Amino acid sequence: MKPFGKRVAMAVLCAATLTSPLLLSGCSMSELWQGTEQSRKEIAQRSEQEQVQLFNQYVKAVSRYNRMAVMFD
User: Which one has a higher pLDDT value, 55 or 38?
Assistant: First the structure.
């Protein structure tokens, strides 16, 4: 197969792989969007103190992960 044909085939394969979940999921994607909207509203309704605590937990988890990743790298 010619190099150009390989590139075109690879591009088509990549595009098909990336778009297949959207095509196969059908109408269920709308349910996912509704779920994310509800979670955004819940997050917006939380108090500032709760948001700070959640953010601190996130920072600690990321720091812990990075510490272990550097240790074993």
Answer: 55
